[in-house]
Structures are given as C-alpha cells and as structure tokens.
Amino acid sequence: MELADAGELGFDAERLARIDGFLQERYIDTGRLPCAQILVAREGHPVHYAHFGTLREDGTPMREDALFRIASMTKPVTSIAFMQLVEQCRVALEDPVTRVFPEFADLAVYAGGGGSVPFAPGTPAPPMRFVDLLTHMSGFTYGLQNRTNIDALYREENLDFARDHLDSDAYVAKLARLPLEFAPGTGWNYSVSTDVLGIAVERLSGMRLGDYLAEHVFGPLGMTDTAFGAGDAGADRLADAYAYRPGKPPRMVDAGATSRLNRPGTFDSGGGGLVGTIADYQRFATMLANGGALDGARIVSPKTLHLMRTNHLPGGADLTQVSRSLFSESHNAGTGFGLGFAMVIDPARTLMPASEGEFYWGGAYSTAFFVDPVEDVTMVFMTQLYPSSAYPVRRQLKTLIYAALTHSNA
C-alpha cells in the first residue's frame, strides 16, 4: 500500500511504528488475536499501514486484500443508504415506521412473562419513528444481549443471524409478534433496529439491500470488495473467525474456506452482514471525513452527514445515562449517539485522547473505525475475534495514534 509522508501530515513516523510493535507483542505473539490490519490516514492520505498474523488456521499468511466480517460496521453503511432516501424526500426521519411496515401497527411494550410463562398483554406502544431505528431508541433488542426474557425469545427465533433462514418479509413478521423492551424514544438499547432500517431501504427503493448498496454506495466509492458475503471470487481471501476463551487460545468458529458467507444468503443484514477489505472501508471512512463525498462522487450532503454525527440522545445525554443494554462497542462515558454513529461529546469524560465530534463504530469481531473531523484523521482496524469486549484494543490503538500526532488542529 502506497503511503504518504507521515511527517508532512503532522505525524511522527517513529511513534506510529509503536503501533506495530504493540500489536505484534501484545496480541499476535501471545495468541490473543489471530490476525490484524490497521490503516491510519490524515487528510485522506494513508500514513501508516501494517498487517499481522495469519489469514487461516493452517498458517496461510495474512494478505493486504483479505476479506473480513465487519459485522456492526455494516450499520453506518446502511444508515447512510437510508439517509440518501431521506435526502430524496422518499421518507422522513419523523415518519412513523408503519408507513413502510404496516406489520408494526400493533406493537406492544413488555409487561411480564416469558420463558415457561406466556407473555402478559403489553401496553400498546406509541408510534415508532424512523429516527428511533437510526438511534437504537426503537425498543427492539438483540438476542446476544442475554439479559431479558425478550432477548431469550430473539435467540430462540435466531433473529440476530437470519442470513440463511429468513427473508426480509419473514423477518419483519417475526419481529412484529414480539414485545418491545420499552416505548420507542424513551431509552437506548443496541438492537436489530438497523436490520429493520435495511429492510426499509429495500421496500422504499424496490431493490434488495445488497443491490442498492452496490449501486448507490459501493459503486460510486470504488468499494469493489464489499458485499453481503464473500462469494466464490473471494472465498480464498476470507479470514477465519475466532471466539475468545478466557485463559485459553481463541477457538476457530468459522473457517474462511468453508464459511456460509461463500454462498448466497436469503437475507441481507443491514445491521451486521457485510464482508469487506480494509482498503474499501478506508474509502468509506474517507468519504465521511470529506463531508459525504470522495473522488467526485457525492454520497450524502455535508448537512445530512452533520445531522447524522450529532448527538440525538434526549437532553444531550450520554450513553451512561440512557443505555439499557450490555453494550460492548465502547466505553459510554462522554459518548453520544446519532443517526448510525456514536460520537464523542465530552472528551474529558472518555479519559483518553479524543476530539469533540469524533465519530465511530465497531463490529462484534473486534473491528473498528473512527473519523476525527477536527484533526482530519481516520483509522480502520480489522481482526476476527468475537466478542469485541474481549480486549481494550480499540482504546489502546486510539491512544497510540493520537500520541503520534506532532501537529494538532484543535
């Protein structure tokens, strides 16, 4: 990968090199992570890139064009796609979701029961709006939260992983029968909301989500290696995925060579289904840093993107004040949430170097990215270890990156 001169862009190259030694010694040599790639850029120019570990359990070396399960880093992509339709006035953030999903007309808020006891009749839910889906204030949940009886039912219905057993309409039909955790707009819970948002893109556009993204996001941005699955052409590049085991080496849970991701699925998960390369996601991150455009392709307007990366939590709260979920994507202090992104609203409360307005997200396999509009810095990090809460590698990488700055715009 061609790199710009780090010094000319306000970085100390020797300090950036600390990232490599840290990842190699702390995570790769110890077996904590099977592989890693990191790409740091400023003003749209890559200044540091490195890769580590192996692509496959058999020792196949890591390669620059490796494909990774980016999981919830799919969510910002789906959110951008939905906001394209908002810009065209085909839908509005304040619209009730029943405009697109009549199946949700009779949603109710949980009032008791579950497991061996039937659910109690719930209180009719107030209208859910599309903004509630974007902000995870819908009242939906994830089975992986593993906290409540509703989470258990999501696991029973396998709603977190619908790729091979449901289509979009069947997915919505199942959700419509389940109670909400809370009334829409009254709490924050990390959830399948963005999967529902992706189905809204399908219904509004008349296109399957993967086809819509290929035409309106990936194609214009030159993201040629990102899709809902690796397919035959990418099967030899898909990294193995692993699960964390306390005190033991990670266990391989999905071999790249035989993964179901090499075969077409029935459901495009807008909340977590994309596979892609670090170079592709860097193009997406650069578009975000540029205010919605890259190389002449305008994806969304600067004002739309500014709305998306503004905190929408009630009263300007952070996630420690409104979150009801077991949330492993970040430390919540000083963190707000917008329309598809988390953002730093109080750098001091995060207890780490940060810029106000910096926005970011991550995936369940420990992938991560951030965009700092103040410093014009982006980072994309790829690995394949579930869950993302296993190690504090994201905070460590941010610390190392900001420690390498020699010129700040703040």
TrEMBL record:
Instruction: Keyword check for Hydrolase, yes or no.
Output: yes
SUPFAM superfamilies attached to this UniProt entry: beta-lactamase/transpeptidase-like
Coiled-coil regions in this chain? none
- Tagged with keyword Amino-acid biosynthesis: no
* UniProt xrefs under Gene3D superfamilies: DD-peptidase/beta-lactamase superfamily
In Pfam terms, one family for this protein is Beta-lactamase
List GO molecular-function terms, semicolon-separated: hydrolase activity
**Keywords for this protein:** Hydrolase
Domain named Beta-lactamase-related is located at 27-393
Protein name, please? Answer: Serine hydrolase
**Which taxonomic lineage does the organism of this UniProt entry have?**
Bacteria, Pseudomonadati, Pseudomonadota, Alphaproteobacteria, Sphingomonadales
